[in-house]
Design brief:
Hypothetical Protein Aq_1857, Chain: A; three-stranded mixed beta sheet; 3 helices; alpha/beta; about 120 residues; DUF779 domain-containing protein
């Protein structure tokens, strides 16, 4: 795995606030049918990490998991965590704060980037 996880200042501030309010928290990148690929924040004690969940990394002592079926979408990527104004999922701890976490990613593999950007024959 070659992941790098970066959170912007606003995301780090919201993570800090949620840690102060809730104690240990985790992120799970969903791959659900209803919400697409979302970053959900939960209290660590309330979220059961299953045998099919894979740890992608952590930021500010917050572990970030995704389901093994979603892992290939993030393998060898830089993962960016940002915040926007609005409400995200009702199941995520930041709900109701007027802010929501947003996930973006970028491929780290230069050979793959060159391949997808190649000029067709």
């Amino acid at each position: 795995m070659n992941n790098k996880i970066i959170a912007d200042d606003n995301a780090l501030q919201l993570i800090k606030e949620l840690q102060e309010e809730n104690g240990n928290i985790i992120f799970h990148i969903s791959c659900g049918c209803c919400d697409g690929t979302m970053l959900l924040c939960a209290e660590e004690k309330d979220f059961k990490v299953g045998e099919n969940d894979i740890l992608l990394g952590n930021i500010r002592d917050v572990k970030i998991y995704t389901h093994k079926n979603n892992y290939n979408n993030f393998e060898n990527h830089t993962i960016y965590i940002k915040t926007l104004s609005g409400n995200g999922s009702e199941f995520s701890l930041e709900y109701g704060s007027g802010k929501k976490f947003v996930l973006e990613s970028e491929i780290n593999n230069k050979n793959y980037v060159n391949y997808i950007n190649r000029t067709p024959l």
